[in-house]
Each structure stands twice: as C-alpha cells, then as structure tokens.
From TrEMBL:
InterPro entries: DUF2147
Lineage: Bacteria, Pseudomonadati, Pseudomonadota, Alphaproteobacteria, Hyphomicrobiales
Coiled-coil residue spans: none
Source organism, top-level taxon: Bacteria
Stretches assigned to the DUF2147 domain: 28-121
Name assigned to this protein: DUF2147 domain-containing protein
A matching Pfam family: DUF2147
Length: 123
C-alpha cells in the first residue's frame, strides 16, 4: 500500500497594490487664479504634465506644463504661456500650498523676470 503525499505549497503572494497618488499632490484638475481656464495635471512617465482643458468637452487640450520633475518640496520643468496667442515657454516651478492650492511660477531670462499664480483644486 502506497500513500500519496502532496507537498504543501505556500499561498501565492498578493498582487502589489496600485500606486496611490497623495491627495495633497498636484495630480488633478485645477482652476487658474483668475478663473481664465482649467488645467489637468497628470503623470507623463516619471514626470508630471499639465493640459489646458476644453470647457465644452472636458478633454485635454494643449500641453502647458511640460515634464515637471520632482525637486525638493515641489516640481521643476517648463510652462507654456498660451495667453493672447503667445507661445513662449519658460522655466517653471510648482509648489503645493495645502491640499487644494498650488503655486505655479514661470521665469524668463534665467530667473530675471518671474510671475506666478495660485491655482485652486477643482476635484
């Protein structure tokens, strides 16, 4: 008489959870300071990008935040000025000011001339 033995296998590991974006991070929908438009910030590879949002369709439009890389307490990259038919691209920084406010700054000529806005989270 033979006894069949079955080797006990350890349980399969649980799948890794999906990455979670912190609620206080910049990913999401933002209203510009003067309520001139909305920008959707989302991951683009290892960086962040931001797109103007079409008010009628809600779809992403032109890329306005370009390859924002994590840097210290914020992000650094480039910003496109689309106001008044402009198309200038400038150095830019993003910095969270609480969960629902984000300071967006653009600088020209190596930081000689800078301007910025505080955007408010929509969602």
């Amino acid at each position: 008489m033979t006894t069949d033995r079955v080797a006990a296998l350890p349980p399969a590991p649980a799948p890794a959870p999906a990455p979670v974006v912190a609620a206080t991070g910049p990913v999401g929908l933002w209203m510009t300071e003067k309520k001139e438009g909305m920008v959707r910030v989302e991951a683009c590879g290892q960086n962040l990008c931001g797109y103007s949002v079409d008010a009628k369709t809600g779809r992403n439009g032109e890329k306005v935040l370009i390859d924002m890389k994590a840097s210290g307490d914020g992000w650094k990259g480039r910003i496109k000025d689309t106001r008044n038919g402009g198309g200038g691209i400038y150095d830019s920084t993003l910095a969270m000011k609480g969960a629902d406010k984000m300071r967006v700054q653009g600088c020209a000529f190596g930081g000689m001339f800078c301007g910025g806005q505080t955007w408010t989270r929509v969602n």
